[in-house]
Specification:
By secondary structure, the chain is mostly helical. The chain has two domains: 42 residues, no CATH class; 73 residues. It has four helices and no strands. Helix 3 runs antiparallel to helix 4. The longest helix is centred in the C-terminal third of the chain and has 34 residues. The two termini are 53 Å apart. InterPro entries: NikA-like.
Length: 129
């Protein structure tokens, strides 16, 4: 259990052009190595390096879903505020203005829900192809 680790007391210094270093750094960032020294050591010692492969279409889908969620949250907040206004109405003369505001917010919310539904349907069709 008490294994003595061989201390790393030897250093290797290398110089790279900016372009070469950018290539190495890009490959390091795509790897699962947490430290640049770990990545360099594995490459120099010809040890296997595991790389992450990102699915670009999935990334695009996530960006779109996040935007849709944010829009839906905004509409939901407006809808909630509309009902707060309803509770603070003092008389029947304020009711027509509230109904008008409510209907416009409702249309916006239904449009957003329709947009989300269409996007989910399109994504589902693409996924099943």
């Amino acid at each position: 259990m008490n294994e003595k680790k061989d201390p790393r007391n030897k250093a290797v210094f290398m110089r790279f052009t900016r372009h070469e270093f950018e290539i190495i750094e890009k490959r390091f960032k795509n790897s699962t190595c947490r430290k640049f020294s770990e990545y360099g050591r594995k490459i120099l010692l010809d040890q296997p390096v595991t790389f992450n492969h990102r699915n670009a279409s999935l990334d695009e889908m996530m960006v779109e879903l996040i935007q849709l969620r944010n829009r839906l949250n905004t509409v939901a907040d407006r809808f909630e505020k509309a009902f707060e206004k309803l509770h603070h109405i003092n008389g029947p003369d304020q009711l027509p203005a509230w109904i008008s505001d409510y209907e416009s917010d409702r249309k916006i919310m239904l449009d957003q829900i329709r947009t989300i539904h269409e996007y989910i349907s399109q994504t589902g069709r693409k996924w099943l192809q």
